[in-house]
Amino acid sequence: MDFEQLLKELEGIVAKLDDPSCALDEGINLFNRGIELSKQCLTVLKESKGKVALLKKELDTLTREEFNPLED
User: Cα–Cα distance between 6 and 36 in angstroms, integer?
Assistant: First the structure.
């Protein structure tokens, strides 16, 4: 599941938990699922942050090595 799908499901859970007619057992199950989804979201974000950091480092290296305005 991608980040957007995880977030959409998590938002749905929050909406259900906000409903006063939500039964206790259902609320506990929804809360548990919400925790799992939150963990998955954090994992995706951490992986994405790592990928962005690597790409930025690569870009910084390329621009320092390949661009010298003093060269003809």
Answer: 10
Residue 30 · residue 58 · CB < 8 Å: no
Grouping H, G, I as helix, E, B as strand and the rest as coil, residue 37 is helix
Quick one: which of 35, 47, 33 has its CA closest to 3?
Answer: 47
Residues 27-50 pLDDT 10s: 999 999 999 999 999 999 999 999
Residue 5 contacts residue 15 (beta carbons within 8 Å) = no
For residue range 54-70, what is the model confidence (pLDDT) as tens digits? Answer: 999 888 887 776 666 67
Candidates 34, 45, 44; CA nearest to 9 is: 34
Cut 0.70: pTM above it: yes
DSSP tally for the chain: helices H, then strands E: 2, 0
CA atoms of 25 and 2, how far apart (whole Å):
28
